[in-house]
Amino acid sequence: MSTTAEENEPPEIKVSETASEKALALLEEENLDTDTAGLRLFVQQGGCAGLSYGMRFDDSPEEDDTVYEHHSLRVFVDPASIGYIEGSVVEYETGLQAAGFDIENPNVVSECGCGESFRT
């Protein structure tokens, strides 16, 4: 059974209103039900600094996920990733050269030069 963030004690993972709106629009484009589906945020081995972020859409949370909800967007985080990203904020940024999701993670002690991977 998935748990809510309140039942776990780690600092909450937050999602900005802009990021939530963009993710919800993408979920709807994929014909996923925003009442049950959500954004999966995870950490995986890789990159020159050792760890990298991953994001994808899932139909529903896994049994052991922590589930957050911000601005009607559900965010699923697995137990192996939560310690690396607790307290993070997911933003959506636009610029002259690119637009995309960005994670502000207070646990990061160093990042690679390109910013694609990190170490805690």
Automatic annotation (TrEMBL):
Residues 12-116 form the Core domain. It comes from the Archaea. It holds the Pfam family Fe-S_biosyn. Transmembrane segments: none annotated. This is HesB/IscA family protein.
